[in-house]
Design brief:
Layout: H1 2-31, E1 52-58, H2 65-73, E2 82-88, H3 94-106, E3 111-116, H4 123-133, E4 139-142, H5 153-157, E5 166-175, H6 182-205, E6 216-219, H7 220-225, H8 236-246, E7 250-261, H9 267-294, H10 299-309, H11 315-330, H12 339-364, H13 369-384, H14 386-398, H15 418-422, H16 432-454, H17 460-499
Parallel strand pairs: 1-2, 1-4, 2-3, 5-7
Antiparallel strand pairs: 4-6, 5-6
Keywords: Cell wall biogenesis/degradation, Glycosyltransferase, Golgi apparatus, Membrane, Transferase, Transmembrane, Transmembrane helix
Pfam families: Glyco_tranf_2_3
Subcellular location: Golgi apparatus membrane
């Protein structure tokens, strides 16, 4: 058993170490080896602006749709070259809100088209493809319902398409509710890592980038040449990105152009989003890895693409280490004397790979001291999500079905009252897995007590991080699940009383 333990731990530790070192190389590229930000070839005279269609795929977004439409209507772009498509698959009052706003905003000369489908075939990808068939615009801008594009967005981004090889330009995400709760702070730090480290680093290396599903603009010809939007994965944005770049289209990332958005809250909404991202990424990896590795691309492009597409394959190894740590803590009293330094060395190696990138990222954002205090809690929350993300990643490998479950949006104006949003929209709560996560959290607390008795001081921090992470994720999911169910029953009872 000891030999098996060391073998499995060594394999998992080496995989995580390679992953961590890769993150360090991306950080180095983004921080020290940063290439100059791309510059447009020139400004466009008023009469030469290309036609742009702004696509807004929505489904039951009553709480945020007005904010979205009014921000898009304020875009500073020639109205005769601009069209707004509201791709509305809603089956609630959202459609009525959109119809009212469409009438109001169209009176100012804005071309706003409200497209309804009888079936949600293909979900978001299907809606985007349907909208593409209804317009002849040269450029296609896409915004999810929780985004608030600034007025200058199109004027800044469109000139980059003067280069005929550019197929897509992606803007950076910013966050309206970054400081709302510990959960939103975690998410903001994680996504800052993507938009301030990974995307700029990949851009400077000349490797494949990805469209992030929103806050970007596509060249119509690029989408069509790559085969259009496809709904056979849950990450249609990542899928189309690779298909387009396989054909030689150039993608650009603009870190200086930020688009505010809303982070998912509470925990069930966050878990729903993470499930879709992890499962969809593994589905896309299955679909494109062979083409990537056998195609006529440089070794650098292939290696970075491999890390990119398999980024969520790391979760099963993190989960495996968690269970191996529990076995080590509760193993026989005469455990090998090498167990503590072995576990401790792997943990310290991973910490060296994790904390410097996030610490430097915080320095890049000129964060306050609280940002650095947040780092161990961020690490704990990532560990706490390891079981859920492992399940999602394995589903992506074993289950090709792409059932899209939307992430509920609440509207920043009600961020202080999430219960109101829960009574309207809520993500489904997985009950079994949060119970398991909560039990694991308590078991890790018992394991920490066992380590204190054994005087294993070196590895105690990793056990405490696991305990906090699993308890935080599990208990918070159960709390919001119960609250959602209570709010739903109260809303149903009030509705029945009103009908009487």
């Amino acid at each position: 058993m000891h030999a098996l333990f060391y073998s499995l731990y060594l394999v998992c530790g080496l995989v995580l170490l390679v992953y961590g070192l890769h993150r360090l190389t991306l950080l180095w590229r983004a921080w020290k080896g940063r290439a100059p930000e791309p510059k447009p070839q020139g400004s466009l005279p008023q009469g030469e602006y290309p036609s742009v269609t702004v696509q807004l795929p929505i489904y039951n977004e009553r709480l945020v749709v007005e904010r979205l439409l009014r921000s898009v209507a304020s875009l500073d772009y020639p109205k005769d070259r601009l069209e707004i498509q509201v791709l509305d698959d809603s089956d609630d009052e959202t459609s009525e809100v959109v119809a009212r706003l469409a009438t109001e905003l169209s009176q100012g000369g804005l071309r706003l088209v409200h497209l309804r489908r009888s079936q949600r075939k293909g979900y978001k990808a299907g809606a985007l493809q349907e909208g593409l068939l209804r317009t002849q615009s040269e450029l296609i801008a896409i915004f999810d319902a929780d985004f608030v594009p600034p007025p200058h967005f199109l004027k800044l981004i469109v000139p980059y398409f003067e280069d005929p090889s550019v197929g897509m330009v992606q803007a950076r995400w910013d966050f309206l509710n970054r400081s709302e709760a510990l959960l939103t702070r975690f998410q903001a730090l994680f996504l800052d890592g993507h938009f301030l480290v990974e995307q700029p680093a990949r851009a400077s290396m000349g490797v494949f980038l990805n469209f992030n599903g929103t806050a970007g603009v596509w060249r119509r010809k690029c989408i069509e040449s790559a085969g259009g939007w496809c709904a056979d994965t849950l990450t249609e944005d990542l899928d189309l990105s690779y298909r387009a770049q396989f054909l030689g289209w150039k993608f650009l990332f603009l870190p200086h152009l930020a688009v505010p958005s809303e982070l998912p809250y509470p925990m069930p909404a966050y878990r729903s989003q993470q499930h879709r991202w992890a499962k969809g990424a593994m589905q896309t990896a299955q679909k494109h890895l062979v083409t990537l590795l056998t195609g006529p691309f440089s070794l650098r492009v292939k290696l970075e693409g491999l890390f990119h597409l398999l980024s969520h394959a790391i979760h099963p190894f993190v989960a495996c280490i968690a269970f191996l740590n529990l076995w080590a803590a509760f193993s026989a009293e005469k455990a090998s004397p090498f167990a503590q330094p072995f576990i401790g060395s792997v943990f310290l190696a991973l910490a060296l790979c994790f904390f410097p990138p996030m610490g430097i990222l915080l320095a890049m954002r000129r964060s306050s001291l609280f940002g650095y205090v947040l780092l161990p809690f961020y690490a704990a929350a990532s560990l706490g999500m390891s079981l859920a993300n492992t399940r999602s990643a394995l589903e992506g490998l074993l289950d090709r079905r792409a059932v899209f479950i939307r992430t509920p949006k609440r509207g920043i104006e009600i961020s202080g009252n999430p219960g109101r949003a829960l009574s309207l929209y809520s993500a489904p709560t997985p009950w079994v897995l949060p119970v398991v996560e909560t039990l694991l959290g308590f078991i890790f607390l018992l394991a920490s007590q066992e380590l204190l008795m054994k005087k294993w001081w070196l590895v105690l921090p990793t056990y405490l991080l696991h305990a906090f992470g699993f308890l935080y994720v599990g208990l918070l999911t159960l709390y919001w699940g119960v609250r959602q169910e209570t709010d739903r029953r109260i809303a149903t009872a009030l509705s029945k009383r009103k009908d009487r």
